[in-house]
Amino acid sequence: MIPTAVEAARRFRDGSLTPIALTESLLERIASENPRLNAFYEVFQEESRESAAALTRELARGQDRGPLHGVPVAVKDLFDVAGHVTTAGAHPGFRPPPARADSEVVRRLRASGAVLLGKTAVHEWALGVSTNNPHFGPTRNPHDLERIPGGSSGGSGAALAAELVPLALGTDTGGSIRIPAALCGVVGLKPSYGRVSLRGVTPLSWSLDHGGPMARTVEDAFLLLEGMCGFRAAPASRVRVLLPKQYFFDDVEGETSELVRRAAGLLGTPEVVDLGDVRAVWNATTVILYCDAAAYHEERLREHPDWFGASLMERLPVGLTYRGIEDARARNTQREWTSFLTQLLGDTAVLAAPTTPEPATIIGDREGVVLGRRLSSLTSPFNLAGAPALSIPVGKVGRLPVGMQLIAAPGRESLLWETGRELVRRLAPADSSQTPIRSSR
C-alpha cells in the first residue's frame, strides 16, 4: 500500500521517504494501471517530478511549508491548472486554450507544497454519476472493472481506490464527491456551501456547486481541506447521531441498508427523526440545477447540440423549459429546507444515511436520467441546504464497497471530523472491507 498523506508527511520528516521517491513510485503505478482504469486524463510527468525534486531539496534545507509539503494530489479536470487545458470532460470542440492562471484551490495547494500529479477523469461537463464519458471513454472501478466508479468525480475516486495517489480534488453539485467515494470505497467530503473557493472551476450549477477533498482516510480528507481553504477542525463535544425516519432507507438495496444501520449503531443508539417531504426537496434541487446548467450552456446548446453526449441531451435542454415561477418556488423550498435542517442538527447532531441506494452498477446500465436520479437521490438534498456531508466506507456487498454519509448543519464540519474518526475506529475490526480488490478483465 502507498502511504496515506499523514503517513507520507511523517516519513518525509523522519527521512525514511522523500517527495521525489513517492512521486516517482506513483508515476510508475499510474503508467501501469491507468490504461485499464482511465482515471487520469492527463499526467503531469515532468512537472510533478520537477516539483517533487525541488520540494525534497527544500526539506533537506529545513524549509517546511506544512503538512502537505511534498504530498501528491490529483486534480479533477474542472479545476484550472496554469498551462493545461481544463477539458471538463467535454467534446474537443468546446475545449478552451490552456489556463493562464491556477484556480484558487490549486494556487493554495501549490503554496502549501503539494505535488500536482495530473488531471482526473470527469463525467461530461460534470452532469452525471457514471464517468462513462462519450469523448474520453469510460472510467472503471478498481473493485470491478466492468462497473462504474461513480461521478462526476469518478477519476478521483478510481485513482484513490487503485492507490495511484493519496489525495484528490473533487466537486459536488448533487453528490459528485460522495457518490464516487461510496462506490470506490474511499472517503469524500462535501464541505459547507462557499467554504471552498470555486474561482477557476468550470461550473455546473452556481447555486449548488461545492469543491471538496477526496482521500483514503478521514484524517487525509481534512488535511486536504485545510490546504484547500485553511479550515481546521476543532474538538467537538458529545455528538448526537440521528437516523431519518423516511425516504433515505425507503428504496435502498437490502444489504446496503443493513451495513449503514449497523455502522450508525456503532456510534450509539441513534435517534430517529422525521425529515418531512424530502421528495419535494429533491425535486427543487433538480429544478435549480437544470436551470443553472442550461443558463451556463445555452449558447453551446444552440450552436453545437451535436457536440453533447446523448445522456446530457436528455437533461440539459430541460432547464430551458422551466418557468421563472418554478425556479422561484424551488428556491423557496431551498430556504425552508436549509432552515429546517440547520435547526434540526444544531451544534451537536449529525444525520447518518446511505450515500447511495446500491453499490456500483455495470458500465452502461441505466445510463443517463434514470441512473442519475437513482444514485443522487440520497446525496442531492444536502447540496440544496449547503450542509457539509462526509461519505465513509462501511463495508461491502460482495466485493463492492458501500458508503455511509454523515451530515452536519452548515458550518459544522468539525462534527464530521469527530464523528468520522470515531466511526472508522469502531469499524476497525472489519477494516478489510476498505481494501480495494483489483479485478482483471
Q: Count up the helices.
A: 14
Specify Rg, calculated over alpha carbons: 20 Å
Mean pLDDT: 96
| Biggest sheet details | 11 strands, mixed
Oligomer: single chain
Reading the helices and strands in chain order gives HHEHEHEEEHEHEEHEHEHHHEHHEEH
Q: Per the principal axes of the C-alpha atoms, what is the gross shape? A: globular
Helical residue percent?
Answer: 25-40%
Overall description:
This protein is α/β, with parallel strands linked by helices and 441 residues long. Mean pLDDT is 96; it is low at 431-441. The strands form two sheets. Strands 1-3-2-6-8-7-12-13-11-9-10 form an eleven-stranded mixed β-sheet, sandwiched between helices. A two-stranded antiparallel sheet has the order 4-5. A hairpin with a 2-residue loop joins strand 12 and strand 13 (400-407). Helix 2 runs antiparallel to helix 3, helix 5 runs parallel beside helix 6 and helix 9 crosses helix 11 (324-345). The relative contact order is 0.13. The protein has helices at residues 5-14, 19-37, 45-60, 104-111, 154-161, 178-184, 218-229, 254-265, 278-303, 310-315, 324-345, 369-376, 380-384, 413-427, and strands spanning 40-43, 72-76, 115-120, 132-133, 137-138, 167-172, 187-190, 210-215, 240-244, 271-273, 349-354, 389-397, 400-407. It is 39% helix and 15% strand.
Keyphrases for this structure?
11-stranded mixed β-sheet, globular, two-stranded antiparallel ribbon, single chain, 15% strand, alpha/beta
Short description:
Helices cover 39% and strands 15% of the residues. The chain has helices at 5-14, 19-37, 45-60, 104-111, 154-161, 178-184, 218-229, 254-265, 278-303, 310-315, 324-345, 369-376, 380-384, 413-427, and strands at residues 40-43, 72-76, 115-120, 132-133, 137-138, 167-172, 187-190, 210-215, 240-244, 271-273, 349-354, 389-397, 400-407. The chain has 14 helices and 13 strands.
